[in-house]
Amino acid sequence: MDWSTFTFDHFLQRAGHGIEFEIFRYLLGTMSTFVIIWLGLSHLLRYRKIRKPTPRARQIRSELFWSAMTVLVFVGMDIIIFDAAELGIFQKYDDVAKYGWVWFFVSIPVMIIAHDTWFYWAHRFMHLPRFYKLFHMRHHRSHNPTPFTAYSFAPLEAVVEYAFVPVGLMLIPIHNTAFYIVMMVMIFKNATAHCGYELMPKSWARLPMLGWLTSVTHHDMHHERASGNYGFYFTWWDRWMGTEHKNYLERFETAGDWARKADAKLAAGPALVPAE
Ligand SMILES: [Zn+2]
Ligand SMILES: [Zn+2]
Fold first, then answer.
1. Ligand 2 mean position to 111 CA, how many Å?
2. 152 CA to centre of ligand 1 in angstroms
3. How far is the CA of 84 from the centre of ligand 2 (A)?
4. Is residue 120 part of a domain?
5. Any idea which ligand is nearest the CA of 220?
6. Is residue 114 in some structural domain?
7. Is residue 175 part of a domain?
8. Which region among 16-30, 48-62, 102-116, 259-273 has the lowest average model confidence (pLDDT)?
9. Of 23, 137, 164, 165, which residue is 20 to 30 A from 120 by alpha carbon distance?
10. Is residue 70 part of a domain?
């Protein structure tokens, strides 16, 4: 490797690209979730709103501040990661012909499954009492999450979350475009997991295979109780390790019932008070 290329200009160029990519990814995922679900579909989804209270603007402001910190951490790591790519330690490649189209498409779920495994165990590690405060408490300050909770991490947690990227790239050969797709799936899954509205139909969680996918309720319960339901994409690690909340399926199916009951009560009118 030619170390003479590592100039300040080179660093600024890398930082510029990293900031563009990370801000674009973050804003696209969180803003589109916010605009589509919170602003566009909130009325249609009102009977699937998981919690009655809506988080306050103050919470969102704090989430945006910590998300900006996370973007900076990710950019710093991107600079190191992309420099490391020049050392040839990653299996990322440009030419589809190297592994073929079948692997191009298979590598996407393989990377997602690997990330889910990383997330589950890193998440459990960060919930250990000795690490919780330093790594993960910031994320749980959002007791009732919003799409912007997605990146609301303490800097140390941001490092742990993003460390999957270099590890995954070392272990799994993946085409540049497939990797980009995985990164976009990651932010959309993250933003929707915190959106506060259950997006799947009631029958979903009991379906074979599809029930392995985590729902919004799954992660919402994790924020509500700050324990259990540690998985990101899939429910299987929680089920294998016995960490899924016992009433998850029931909560999934009844998500938003409070709003339906409140509307029914309103439609029935005020209870008659017997005249004295
Ligand atoms: Zn969360
Ligand atoms: Zn947690």
1. 22
2. 8
3. 30
4. yes
5. 1
6. yes
7. yes
8. 259-273
9. 23
10. yes
Task: Find the 99 Cα to ligand 2 centroid distance in Å.
Answer: 37
Ligand nearest to the CA of 152: 1
State the sign of the Cα–Cα–Cα–Cα dihedral 119, 229, 158, 39: positive
pLDDT at 20 over 90: no
Query: For residue 2, what pLDDT is reported?
Result: 56
Select from 151, 169, 158 the least CA-distant residue to 114: 169
Enumerate the β-bridge partners of residue 41.
Answer: none
118-172 residue pLDDT tens: 999 999 999 999 999 999 999 999 999 999 999 999 999 999 999 999 999 999 9
d(CA 114, CA 272): 59
pTM of the full structure: 0.89
- Quote the CA–CA distance of 35 and 127 in Å, as a whole number: 32
pLDDT, tens digit, 9 for 90 and up, residues 206-232: 888 888 999 999 999 999 999 999 999
The 3-state DSSP class for residue 215 equals coil
Q: In this structure, are residues 29 and 150 in contact, taking their beta carbons and an 8 Å threshold?
A: yes
Ligand nearest to the CA of 131: 2
